[in-house]
Amino acid sequence: PASLPNNTVRALVEDQAGNLWIGTDNGLNCFNKKTRTFIFYVHEDNKNSISNNSILSFYQDKKDNLWIGTMMGLNYFNTKTKQFIIYTTENGLANNAVFGITEDENYNLWVSSNRGLSRINLLTKKVKNYDPADGLQSFEFKDHAFCKASSGKMYFGGINGFNEFE
């Protein structure tokens, strides 16, 4: 309870309560900075589990929901029920490897992968995918290569440069 299960940290985010969420190659970890203890979440064979233990990215949306990108899909974590809702190619994502997550001003999540960019409308749950035919630098984006600027513009980097859009 006082240490990480794996030393390779791939993603970090602090939630509104001040907890530090730490993504490793061996699962999701929530570090309570006040008590200095961890809660661990790992993939299990049930529908309420995280989709994969290889955590690649985090995003906390405007409504303070926690989104987790893994090698096997996008995970929404309900902090009240401690359950996960998983989005994969079966739900319309371009690919299950989720490298980057950010949000636009219209409550859409933008998710980068190694098969293009997906836009998920969080109100309707509809997914639209984009690829090089839409002007993307490549199908393949890279992990940790994304940000939303203070201007509202979003940037996603990949193997052939980066894309900028609002």
Q: Could you walk me through the main structural features you see in this protein, from its secondary elements to its overall organization?
A:
The chain has 166 residues and is an all-beta fold. Helix content is 0%, strand content 48%. It contains no helices and 15 strands. It has a 4-stranded antiparallel sheet with strand order 1-2-3-4, with no helix packed on it. Strands 5-6-7-8 form a 4-stranded antiparallel sheet, with no helix packed on it. It has a 4-stranded antiparallel sheet with strand order 9-10-11-12, with no helix packed on it. A hairpin with a 4-residue loop joins strand 3 (27-32) and strand 4. It is globular. It starts with 8 loop residues before the first strand and ends with a strand.
Helix content: under 10%
Largest sheet: 4 strands, antiparallel
Number of helices: 0
Shape: globular
Keywords:
single chain; mainly beta; four-stranded antiparallel sheet; 15 strands; 0% helix
In a few lines, what is going on in this structure?
The chain has no helices and 15 strands. With 166 residues, it is mainly β.
Topology:
Blueprint: E1 9-14, E2 20-24, E3 27-32, E4 37-41, E5 55-60, E6 66-70, E7 73-78, E8 83-87, E9 100-103, E10 108-112, E11 117-121, E12 127-130, E13 141-148, E14 154-158, E15 161-165
